Amino acid sequence: MPVCSRVFSTIFTTLVLAAALHAGTLTGTVINRTTGQPAPNVDLDILSPTAGMAELATAKSDSQGHFSVTKDSIGMGPMLIRATFHDVSFNTFAPPGRPNVEVEIYDLSKDPKTISIESHVVIFQPEGGKLVGAEEYAVQNASQPAYAFFRTEGNFDFAIPENATLGQVSTTTSSGMAVTQASIDKGKGHFAIAYPFRPGQTNVRLSYQLAYPNNSATFKLPAVYSGAKILVVVPPGVTINADGLKPAGQEQGMLVYTHDPLPAKGVLSVSLSGVGAPQPAGADQGQEAAQEGNSRQGQEVIAAPSRLDEFKWVLFAGLAALFAMGAILLSRKQVVAVAGEADGNAPTQAKSTKPTKAKKAPSVPAPNAAAEVDKHVAASMDSLKDQIFRLELRRQAGTISEVDYAREKAQLDKLLRDLVTG
């Protein structure tokens, strides 16, 4: 067997055995990122996102912020660790095979200047005689020191067109988990949510339905926050008119338009007509839930949508069954990786959709060749584990068809074989 193949096989076997040995035990440290210190006496719930958010175990951090849980059901699949701090829940996602985690929490701020609204994406889709709207706000928290912005009475406001019926509202951070939020009705199409916006970017998503008689509608899009870039997306076959709306080409088969930021309390008058090309239907299987923040509804684990390269904004084409859950507009170059880190951290750098393939070692190894191979294989294995983990979550959440799942799984299996055989 070639030297490279033996090294790869040995490391791969070691990783598999290590995961097996750690199955049943989860350890970690709770860190308060506002103070930078370990957090004692924090209650923790360990949940299974692939088993109906069943509670696997509970724990409490000790005086040094450490915790350890041993149970047969732990470690054999992905886990969600929910830390409750000041009556607010902070979630950490832990992929399988990662027995040690760092759970991050934050002190709370009520200052609205803690966050800023960077962009506003609006997608329209005619569906069954109705017009479905889906919107996404990119909310940035750049506080120093790091605080989570939160108010129990509601700390993020939004508005929908007059006579529209609000559907689902959710928040998503760099970890890729969507937390369904309970909306607070403020009257006349204005709503709010109460959610702890942690440092980094959080995407607030919402959907609604409008009447669409004779396949046409005219309505006003209200703006709550000033200075947010606006992106409007419709399917081919739908005609859209609005003052100041500029065509920006197509992305993944959808027509893209841009508009300059509106002032606070400004409105954008929009006219739409046409049925549009049919969109692929995503599976609307039941999804399981677990609380985060003080949301009175649950958390749904879904794949994180990728970003539109030119605008750096997330496009999504589905919120629950209303907007074809899972018909995500994928970008050409990158996806957001699901990592075993606290939901709400500063966004991690997007990973390539294909892990780096390990190069074959030269016939006469250099003095440090083995060490370099070790580092390369470890990085490649981590990337593969993250991709497999993300793929399985998409399948569990029903955001990928069985055909696409089989195709992507086969690609990952081939990458794994290539990595092991060198």
Outline the structure in words.
The protein is an alpha+beta fold and 422 residues long. The chain has two domains: 22-108, Immunoglobulin-like (Sandwich); 112-323, Sandwich (Immunoglobulin-like), CATH 2.60.40. Helix content is 16%, strand content 37%. The chain is built from three helices and 27 strands. It has helices at residues 3-22, 369-397, 402-421; strands at 25-32, 37-38, 43-48, 54-60, 66-70, 79-85, 88-94, 100-105, 108-109, 115-127, 130-141, 148-149, 156-159, 165-172, 177-180, 184-187, 190-193, 200-211, 216-222, 229-234, 239-241, 246-251, 254-259, 267-273, 299-301, 307-308, 313-314. The protein has a nine-stranded mixed β-sheet. Strands 1, 2, 5 and 8 form a four-stranded mixed β-sheet that branches. A four-stranded antiparallel β-sheet has the order 4-3-6-7, with no helix packed on it. Strand 22 (246-251) and strand 23 form a beta hairpin. The radius of gyration is 23 Å and the shape is globular. The model is unreliable at 2-8, 11-22, 281-289 and 295-370 (pLDDT under 50).
Major beta sheet, strand line-up = 22-23-20-10-11-18-14-15-25
**What is the number of domains?**
2
Count of helical stretches:
3
Average predicted confidence as pLDDT:
74
List how many beta strands DSSP finds.
Answer: 27
Low-pLDDT parts are: 2-8, 11-22, 281-289, 295-370
Q: How far apart, in Å, are the first and last alpha carbons?
A: 10 Å
